[in-house]
C-alpha cells in the first residue's frame, strides 16, 4: 500500500489510527464498540473506528433535529451554494478519496475515481436543482380561487449504504437532501467505515467555513443494530437504504410499521440479451466490464448473458477469449483489471455459487478459484468465472455478489429472450445488444424489460447520475439521483387560496346558514 501513496491519502482525508465514528459535523465522538477496517487489498489493518452507542445516537438526533429547524428556512439556492462548495472540495480531493475507496473496498483505482466523479456530478446536478424544486399550478373550479402545490423540506433523512459504493451512494442521497432542505444521518457499511469518516470530514470543513450549525451532516457507525436505531425512529421521516433484498425487507417493514417512507435500492440480477443482430465487439466489452468490474460487486453487475442460439458459440468464444486477458491483482496498480472481493466471507459465497451451478447441472467454462501466492495474501482475490446454465437454476435466480457470469441460450424470437430475462425476482438493470430497431423497441416496450433501467447497446452497469437510478420488483422500487428523484426528499403540499368575498364550496355543494 505504501508505494501507492495510501498514507498520504489517509492524511489528506483526516483519517487517524483510531477514529471517532460518530459525528454531527465538526464534533466527533463515539463510545460504542471498536470496528477494525482491514483492506481486502493486502489484508492490513488500515485504522480503527469507535462505533455509535445509543447515547451517541441520541446526541446526533438532537443535533440533527435542531439543525433542521434553521436549515429548512435557508433559501434553496443558498443551500445549493453549500453543495457547490462541497463539490469543489471533492474535485480537490478526488485522488486521495478515490484511492481510499480502492484500498478500503477493493475496486480498481480507476473505478474509485469514477465513484468520486459520480459524487461531483450529483453535486453539480443538485446545485442546478436548488433553483427549481418546482410544483405545479392548477386551475380551480371555483371563481376567484388559485390552486398550486409546493414542496417543503421533509426532516432528517436516514441513509444506510453498502460497501460496494461506499461514497457515491451517500452523495446521491445527501446532495439532493441538502438542497431540498433536509439534514442527513448516514450509516455507512461497517465494512467501509473509513470512507464514511473521510466524506464526513470533507463535509465538515464546508459546513464550518460557512458557519452552519452542527447536525446538517451526521455520521453514525456500526452494524445492523445501529441501523435499527434509525429504522425505528419516527423523527426520521425517510430512510434510504441500499443493500441486499434480505436487508431491504427488514428495513421496509420496520419503517412501514411507523408509517415512515423508505427508498430502497436492493439486489439486481442483471442480464444482457444478445440477439443475432448484435455487434459482437461491443457485446464483449459491455459484458466483460459488466461482469468483472468492481469484481462483480455492483448492484448493476452483469450476471446473465442471454444469447441467441445462432450466434451462441461465437459470443461464447469471444467472451472466453476476453477473460484470458484479465489481470487479477492489487487494484491500486492500474495494470490490473480485477481487484479482490470485500472479504473472505464473500469468497466463500463465490465458491458456494460455483459449486451450486455444477450441482444443478451447469458447466463451468472459465474456471474460478481463489488466487494464491505473492500479492494475494489477503485471501480475497478470486478468478472471474463463467458457467453455462439454465435460466431456472436456483443459483441463477439469486444474486451472488461476485464475478460469476451465467451464459444462457435462447432460440426463436426476441420475446423468448425477454421472457427469460424477466423471469427473476429482481428488476434493476437490463440491456439488449442489437442493431435491429424492432428488437430494440420491443425490449423497451411495455411488454419488454421489466427493470428500472433498460439500455440498448450499452451494458448493465455504469449508469449516469442524470437519470433516475433504481429498480422494480424485489429491487425495491426506489429511485435515486437524477430526473425527479428529489421529490421523495420533500413533502408536497396542495394550497388553495380564495381571493374573493364569497365562500363557494367545491363540487357545487350548497350550504346555506
Ligand atoms: C451500486 O452498485 O450500488 O450504474 C450502484 C452503476 C453505478 C452505480 C452502481 N453508477 O453501475
From TrEMBL:
This is aldehyde dehydrogenase (NAD(+)). Gene3D superfamilies: Aldehyde Dehydrogenase, Chain A, domain 1, Aldehyde Dehydrogenase, Chain A, domain 2. The active site is at 265. SUPFAM superfamilies: ALDH-like (SSF53720). Coiled coil: none annotated. Residues 33-494 form the Aldehyde dehydrogenase domain. Pfam families: Aldedh (PF00171). Homotetramer. Keywords: NAD, Oxidoreductase.
